[in-house]
């Protein structure tokens, strides 16, 4: 495992996103800026300004239009085709938590967008914390504060399927596999779970001894990456070893932890794996984004042992 660059910020890193082409890494933090870095060497390319508070999430790109909301936006995600964007807004100050879907007008220079969403709905019961477009263009998968995971029809706002007890505490992250047939969630209940997208059945469970903030599926190799650690408020009284601030690698099929990568001295808040599976980035409460490239041995290993298929 080679650390290519450790990119420092003054404030905690909250969310990392690697561009679909894989050459750029976008990160956001509590300093009101979105930064863009080269994913190959960690060199900073520039910053995006414009926010007046903490930037909780980003999904790459140039600022063409701004939508304003009465409360904080906790997660945004583009559809696979790039013609829609979905966002989750916070339940606060008398406002209900909401999921809003906007159509993206790609004609012209992209600055002519409708201020009105094509659909807005309020999930009943517990509020949504994370969202992503699912296996079908008109389906959304959500994670909730209660630990619930659900599928919603993006056109009608109808809840199509739900797993009320997917987790025992709040869902902190949701990331889909490249083919969107399954996805991974992380939770404050110290577990990450692999779900079948169409049915929400739990396929695999990865239990740790620390709250988790992020989980990601590694392409090419059968591994799951997990990140988290002791609560940020207790970090000043905790060593890096005791706080469990490592990126954890789990075997996706056998549900066994196979390794850890240290480096952060605060909780890991976000993980993003490069689309080609050759590197990953982690962002932490310590204000650093760390870009790691896998050694050749990572690809030559035999994760299935004697069951490894012949090349």
- Figure out the total of helices: 2
Which stretches are low in confidence, meaning pLDDT under 50 for 5 or more residues running?
Answer: none
Shape summary: globular
| Strand-pairing-aware structural class | mainly beta
Q: Going across the biggest sheet, name each strand in turn.
A: 1-24-23-22
User: How many E-type strands?
Assistant: 24
The pLDDT mean sits at 84
Q: What Rg do the Cα atoms give?
A: 19 Å
Biggest beta sheet summary: 4 strands, antiparallel
Tell me the span between the first and last alpha carbons.
24 Å
Order of helices and strands: EEEEEEEEEEEEEEEEEEEHEEEEEH
- Sheet-strand content, in percent, reads 35-45%
Percent helix, as a range, is under 10%
List the SSEs and their pairings.
Elements: E1 2-8, E2 13-18, E3 24-29, E4 34-38, E5 44-48, E6 73-78, E7 84-89, E8 98-103, E9 119-121, E10 128-133, E11 139-144, E12 149-153, E13 159-163, E14 171-176, E15 182-187, E16 191-196, E17 202-207, E18 212-217, E19 223-228, H1 240-243, E20 247-251, E21 257-261, E22 268-273, E23 279-284, E24 288-293, H2 296-300
Antiparallel strand pairs: 1-24, 2-3, 3-4, 4-5, 6-7, 7-8, 8-9, 10-11, 11-12, 12-13, 14-15, 15-16, 16-17, 18-19, 19-20, 20-21, 22-23, 23-24
Give structural notes.
The chain has helices at 240-243, 296-300, and strands at residues 2-8, 13-18, 24-29, 34-38, 44-48, 73-78, 84-89, 98-103, 119-121, 128-133, 139-144, 149-153, 159-163, 171-176, 182-187, 191-196, 202-207, 212-217, 223-228, 247-251, 257-261, 268-273, 279-284, 288-293. The chain has 311 residues and is mainly β. The strands form six sheets. A four-stranded antiparallel β-sheet has the order 1-24-23-22, with no helix packed on it. Strand 10 and strand 11 form a beta hairpin. The chain is globular.
